[in-house]
Prior knowledge:
Blueprint: E1 15-19, H1 24-35, E2 39-44, H2 47-59, E3 63-68, H3 74-88, E4 92-95, H4 110-138, E5 141-145, H5 158-177, E6 184-190, H6 196-200, H7 205-213, H8 224-235, E7 246-249
Parallel strand pairs: 1-2, 1-4, 2-3, 4-5, 5-6, 6-7
Helix pairs in contact: 1-2, 1-8, 3-4, 4-5
Amino acid sequence: MTAHVLAPGSLDGQRVLVTGAGSGIGRGIAVRIGQLGAHVIGLGRRDDPLAGTVAEVERAGGSAQAHACDVRDPDQVAELIERIGGDGGLTGLVNNAGGQFFARAEDISPRGWDAVVDLNLNAVFTMTRAAHPWLAIAGGSIVNVSLSGVERGSMGLAHSVAARSGVLGMTRTLALEWARDAIRVNCLGPGTVLTEAFLAGMTDQRIVDRLVEEATPMRRATDVAEVAELAAFLCSDAGAMITGQLLHVDGGAHLGSGLHLLPEEDA
């Protein structure tokens, strides 16, 4: 679908870093931001998917570079951000990297809990803190990709909702602390986005059908392009007075019965 509303050149002159840029929502955001004129710096775990993102950005008329990086490693992140900032500065950061598995809370092991919290909360803080000095120079924008329903809970996602609720609290706190640096900090709450990674983690098609047809008032999935356009908007001058917000792009799912990732008999 086409969700483009921003004018060509809306992000001219910007340099925006996107984590988890190798596929799915992250790739969609990287491509759209590049298409609007920003130079995109994509981060991810593997080189090959990132190369695909760079090629897609360039086909869309933008410019991009990519770096394989473990966003959970503070030393690796600090070194890379310093290099990127020194190469030309940084005006935007999209913290998209994340992931989780679906399980009842009593079935989540301590190791599983720690892994999800480390990726979805600790890594976001690590990246954001490292980027702060460069964003302060530019008066930049931070967009944290979260979840629909993060304020109400989602069965099957106790670890991820806990982590992303922490990101929301951090977002609002940094919006207050860093307003002095003209840095804006916001969260996006996508609904059900049918990416390859999401569908690969689903073993019960009935859950997917329920998420889209029953739990989403608009009765359809959220498209990657819709998330990407809102992320680009928050990086643009049009979003200059928006900070500390959780913006849902979920067809009203956060108001409905909830996006629960457990089978019907367990939900």
